[in-house]
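comment on this one:
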Amino acid sequence: MRTKHPLCQDIARIAGSFLLLLSAVATVSGQGTIHVTFDNPPPRPPGTAAGFIYYSESGVGISPGEGGFTRRWSGDPLFPDNGTAYLQRRSGSSEVLSFDRNGRIFAAVSVDLALYSASSLEPVTVQFAAFGYSGPPLATTDFTITGAVDSQGRPAFQTFYFPSQFRDMYYLRLTPATPLWSLDNLVIYVPEPSALALLVVGSGLLWAARRRCIHTGLEPHEKHDTIH
């Protein structure tokens, strides 16, 4: 009769459990959504602002160019106030604001925009561009910020959604021609590791372990009774 070494029996049981687990993961696996709120430390007093050279949050790197952008904390009666920190373009700056995922592709979902301050409530159009690793833009879109205000007369944030073409990109940029604005709550998503790839790799490892059992003699081949 054919017999199995206990170690090989354990491998078979592990293989079955592993495949069931990865099948479940494959069913629920989706995209990883990231919210960039610009609220990272260090905290500052309400109503203050500070320029920044580089900002990173939740794996998203933000490069403002040469001294062209400000991180502002809510609390000034002239500027937008959503209770948190947000970004603003400095007056006179013509630099590109660039968002990236350190070499990983992503898609842009939405962003909150408001006018720069209550001193001017004329509508403003902001242009975003999606870029691949190199070359011209993959897509561009314009968002027009209206003169909406809150109960105190300060510019109110409005949510805008990126078109479907803003995917499979390495960089999201605001173009140099963009006028003054306030920006908060950038939402992107990043593809998670494929459950199918994990399934293939795991199955391969278990198959290799099974073959090792056979070829090292842990699982003998069938033996036949001999008639004397």
